[in-house]
Hints:
Helix content: 25-40%
Structural class: alpha/beta
Largest sheet: 9 strands, mixed
Distance between the termini: 21 Å
Number of strands: 17
Amino acid sequence: xxxxxxxxxxxxxxxxxxxxxxxxxxxxxxxxxxxxxxxxxxxxxxxxxxxxxxxxxxxxxxxxxxxxxxxxxxxxxxxxxxxxxxxxxxxxxxxxxxxxxxxxxxxxxxxxxxxxxxxxxxxxxxxxxxxxxxxxxxxxxxxxxxxxxxxxxxxxxxxxxxxxxxxxxxxxxxxxxxxxxxxxxxxxxxxxxxxxxxxxxxxxxxxxxxxxxxxxxxxxxxxxxxxxxxxxxxxxxxxxxxxxxxxxxxxxxxxxxxxxxxxxxxxxxxxxxxxxxxxxxxxxxxxxxxxxxxxxxxxxxxxxxxxxxxxxxxxxxxxxxxxxxxxxxxxxxxxxxxxxxxxxxxxxxxxxxxxxxxxxxxxxxxxxxxxxxxxxxxxxxxxxxxxxxxxxxxxxxxxxxxxxxxxxxxxxxxxxxx
Length: 418
């Protein structure tokens, strides 16, 4: 069964997250986006976990859907029990700040995880709790509770909070997890990197590269996702990730990594952003204020890489770079992605073509033009072909996308499939 899965999001109980992020709305928007399996996110938070237990019922093995009295629609989103933990601790003489995803196969396993972690830190404070717990010890805890639990380093290259982060991370999986490293079979690429960047490290050849939205709002769901062809179950999805079987793990949907908030090096307060080469010329300092630049993902990959750009391991799972549909429409119409004009066109396209993923990946350009307009159709075509200009993101600032060059004329598109 072909499955689109987004396994890392946050609930309304996490900081800086929309209050609209509840299970009912996530279900509605997952169907708009064309996603079959969503992570619940935040299962460590007592109130959110209570909502999970109250509103969801078991469906396929290890998966859940909304109870019928909450959602009367026949086609319901499946939910997998997931959470993100922020670990801040000292190791090797340095302070480490690592974010890890946890996947759990059952409500019973989550109850035991939460009981154990509640002894260590305050789970009520945030949907993504901060614990003074070594990542290795977190892995031991969840595996002792249920061997089917999974830990995956989140947004693995983000400077401040990740396993390979330039500011507080490690240089290898083994350095972080020691003797438990064999249990780490996947990492999350994050918005500021894509698989091609990760392929430059031969140490990651056996590691699966998954992509998720890390969404804090409904519209951001599915901006990165995983495409599987596997059994609709917890075990089926985990096996597809772990095996790296290209017949089961088909591809990932990725941001253009330049659009991510930490792709380039930079200093946001001064509006300075540099490529790794420019950073070297300035000795890692901001030329305006003299402070250290935040070293971004591209630079960090360069530091750890043992392959040249463009080299690809034999076991690589493919990927497709896309831009969310509301951003494409906004660019075509010259307005913000949250405007009424954009949402009207968005609902029209998604209503006619059934989901955002079908609009972005499969619909013919002629059909998009017929339902919406010629410029939006041309914008989708440009994104599919990678014909976009992006000012790279840096130091917490998203990159700026330009789908149309100022001098570009809109020509009638030919019918095409992605």
